[in-house]
Amino acid sequence: MANTDARSSLRRKLAVASLFSIFNILAWNSSLLSSGSVTPVDFDFSSALGSSFELLMLQLGIGMTSGVGLVTSDGLWGDDSDMNERYKDEDIKILGFSDRNYLPIARVWYNRMTMLGYTEHHIVAHDEITYNALHSENLRVIPCFITNPDYGRPVKGLWQQIMAARLHLTMKILRNGTHVLITDVDNIFSRHVPLVGFLEEGYDVYHAYEMRYPTSIYNQFGFVVCSGHQFLRSSPATFEFMKLVLRRCSGSKCDDQVTYNKVFFYDLDIQWDLDGGEDSPNNVRGALRVNTTHPENTKLLVESFTGRSRVTNHTVKIWDRDFAWRLAGAIPEWCPSENNWLGMPTKLNDSLTGHGNKIHKKIAAFQVWDTHCRGQGVGEHAM
Fold first, then answer.
1. 334 and which of 25, 36, 52, 330 could share a cystine (Cβ 3.0–4.6 Å)?
2. Main-chain phi, psi angles of 64, to 5 degrees
3. Which of 137, 134, 114 has the alpha carbon at shortest distance from 124?
4. E strands along the chain, which residues?
5. Could you read off the pLDDT of 314-328 as tens digits, one per residue?
6. Ramachandran angles phi, psi of 271, nearest 5°
7. Rounded CA gap, 36 and 113, in Å?
8. Could you give the C-alpha distances from 59 to 62, 74, 176, in angstroms and in order?
9. For residue 343, how far is the Cα from the chain centroid?
């Protein structure tokens, strides 16, 4: 059986079991009240039942559709008070990264995160101009300045300097005992997902799917993970993973997307949790894939997979593509479901974003996402 079939079956069993539990509580309460053995208490069982139905609908994806073919159940734990209490002493940070060129996008991202209810998001500033501007606006900002920035070479120079600095900062923060969500400031969050849920779920490192870059690795293994959005637990096993990452990025410049995927596929020797004994998610018979003829999106893997590295012993989860959505163009035809956490759109048509430079188009993408994939309402207050 494919991984997704077993996972869907388990979700349904858990959801139905929860619903029957509520019915049993209602019957038990009614019986006690009718016998006069208890004093009525002020508890809204109708609301409890309604909430259970709502949770059941979300878990089963009833009434929802997704352009990628799978309605995700990732991140649906809600704001659980017991879970919050268990992890109240854990420090978690969301880190978005910006230099002076991306400063306008960083502001939009930060304000949107605040509006969605996040309080742990910070912008990592790679130059003094960015740091001073954000600090003066009382935004949470962390300095991580680039020494001798290579502005003459935007990609092979400055961008690779920023990517290397980002990897080294990630390890430093993890070693301080802080769990981190690393994300790009042009990633568009759709809803609030309490991050303690990832600690409760128990994996060390969570990845999102990319599309096809690096192409040589994609062509060999059939999928690649995204360096621009991942959650890392501060744990000894995660440290071992990051040591391998920094071994491949020991200097002041590197392509973090290439670095992470080389480690992921060449260094980790992951044992996947696959029912059929397959050696890779790409080889799972019947694995869900994006159903399109678009050359960059066709046949991309969709569903979540989990495993453990035989080298570092750290556990891995790749999120559903519906949860962490990444495609080229594809709006509005392949928009995700209402359970989506964030979108990482790229290569949007000018008919959607309007004409303009790279910064203009990335900022416009926030409104495009809300208009076409979220049904309005989010971006109106976040820009």
1. 330
2. -115, 155
3. 134
4. 91-98, 121-125, 141-143, 178-183, 188-189, 205-209, 225-232, 270-272, 305-309, 315-318, 324-325, 342-343
5. 999 999 999 999 999
6. -95, 110
7. 51
8. 8, 9, 35
9. 9
